[in-house]
Design a protein that fits this description.
Length: about 240
């Protein structure tokens, strides 16, 4: 070390120097953490697209690393195993669903307007993914008979989705748009069933009229339970 360093150390009792060193170390650590978070985000974006195109079971650390031009060991350090990678992708997908489907629907008035908005955004979500459509729906088929954390995570997401739809149906009932004899849980079951059928119609059967029929099915579902026909005319103005 230079003489100047020791003089500076003596004149300041070392405090300012050690603060500077500590500050530099903190900044460096933050930069490393930020870089790691950016890498993880990039990996999850690609893994999410991969799962949508080829299915969650096909996702491996080795192939994903090669696709991204990263080292397998580097990618392994982020996730630790194929299963943890799959779980991270499902968590990422849940966040995307919330941003693209759930939150936009909340901007609509309570009741049937919100339910129809949720339905339309959900159809867009299914259409917006590559060959296999909705990651959760395709993963449910792939993992329905495979016990383990991935299956549990998928089942948990569907449970929360059903609860969300049921709550929206309950609010529609409280708003006086659905009759008091309507069963919100049953309506949620059928609402979700229409979405599942649309997924099959658009992806497997490739029916061009899938969305039209899905909307007609939803209108029919509500028509048996609305308190006034005018409610339907308001939320389905073009039907």
């Amino acid at each position: 070390m230079s003489l100047r360093f020791f003089r500076l150390l003596k004149s300041t009792n070392g405090r300012s120097i050690f603060r500077s060193v500590e500050s530099a170390e903190v900044t460096q650590a933050k930069r490393a953490r930020s870089k790691g978070e950016l890498t993880r985000q990039k990996v999850l974006e690609r893994a999410f697209a991969w799962a949508g195109a080829s299915g969650l079971p096909s996702l491996t650390i080795g192939e994903l690393a090669a696709d991204l031009g990263l080292s397998k060991s580097g990618l392994f350090a982020h996730f630790g195993s194929k299963e943890k990678l799959q779980l991270a992708v499902l968590e990422y997908a849940a966040g995307q669903f919330e941003q693209q489907v759930f939150r936009p629907a909340l901007s609509h008035p309570r009741g049937l307007p919100r339910l129809v908005a949720l339905f339309e955004d959900w159809l867009d979500w299914i259409d917006g993914h590559e060959r296999r459509g909705c990651v959760f729906l395709s993963a449910a088929i792939d993992f329905d008979d495979r016990e383990g954390p991935v299956r549990d995570a998928i089942a948990d997401w569907f449970g929360k989705a059903d609860a969300m739809i049921t709550l929206a149906m309950t609010l529609a009932q409280r708003e006086g748009q659905l009759g008091c004899d309507a069963d919100p849980a049953q309506l949620a079951f059928e609402f979700h069933g229409i979405l599942l059928k649309y997924h099959l119609a658009s992806r497997l059967s490739r029916r061009p009229d899938g969305r039209v029929r899905a909307r007609a099915a939803l209108r029919s579902l509500f028509s048996h339970h609305v308190t006034s026909p005018g409610v339907l005319s308001h939320v389905f103005p073009c039907s």
